[in-house]
Design goal:
By secondary structure, this protein is mainly α. It contains six helices and no strands. The chain starts with 6 loop residues before the first helix and ends with a helix. The relative contact order is 0.07.
Length: about 130
């Protein structure tokens, strides 16, 4: 047996699917695009719009100004990304007195196809827009 502490070694060389008699569906539909989030905006070349005059001092000053603006723009973009990544106010809860009430509500609005506990808000919006 290897000295690595991996799951296969801990299970005596078996993998989890073998021990459980095959793959197990845990009822979670994961969209990997949702996990990865949206791709960041491409960063423009800060020197791309510098107009060169041929004068070394003037061109160097124009490049420095463009680079400084590029850093400010990137810092603002990063600040917005950080705010969005750490914001916890992106969800809400709806409560019922019983499980049966919850299930009836989800079925009535055809939301049960999305799950029964944690629903993707964008998908809920699409379902409700169709009504």
């Amino acid at each position: 047996m290897s000295t690595d502490n991996n799951l296969g070694d801990l299970l005596g060389g078996s993998n989890l699917d073998d021990l459980l008699g095959g793959p197990v569906d845990v009822g979670i539909d994961i969209d990997t695009d949702d996990l990865l989030g949206e791709a960041p905006e491409p960063v423009a070349d800060p020197l791309g719009e510098v107009e060169y005059s041929g004068d070394l001092a003037q061109d160097a000053a124009a490049e420095l100004t463009a680079l400084e603006q590029g850093y400010r723009d990137r810092a603002k973009q990063e600040s917005n990304r950080f705010r969005d990544a750490t914001d916890s106010e992106y969800w809400f809860a709806v409560c019922f007195k019983t499980r049966a009430e919850k299930e009836a509500f989800l079925a009535k609005y055809q939301l049960d196809q999305l799950g029964d506990k944690y629903l993707d808000g964008k998908k809920v919006g699409k379902v409700l827009d169709r009504r």
